[in-house]
Design a protein that fits this description.
By secondary structure, the protein is mostly helical. The protein has a domain of 50 residues. It is built from 2 helices and no strands.
Length: 90
């Protein structure tokens, strides 16, 4: 018979708690940046009939970064995203 205390996963470290708080703040910031980019892309599309290519590249990378953040803060990954890890590229 196995002891129930041995089957529990380890508790998160204090470092992970701090990084999770930081990354939650970054997720909120990303949502504000995304709002501004969305408005900007609408303006570019109305004026120039197509979205800005540099913003498309940036938002592709930003979406990959947001995915990495969600994976880390939800404990689906132990790899720390930027600023501790690398900035993702698509």
């Amino acid at each position: 018979m196995q002891n129930s205390q041995n089957s529990r996963p380890p508790k998160p470290s204090f470092e992970r708690v701090l990084y999770t708080i930081l990354y939650l703040i970054l997720v909120r910031f990303i949502s504000m940046v995304l709002f501004v980019i969305t408005i900007t892309q609408f303006i570019y599309s109305w004026i120039g009939s197509e979205p800005n290519k540099q913003l498309l590249q940036f938002t592709g990378n930003l979406s990959e970064y947001a995915k990495e953040l969600v994976l880390y803060i939800s404990f689906n990954s132990d790899e720390k995203p930027w600023p501790s890890g690398e900035w993702p590229t698509v």
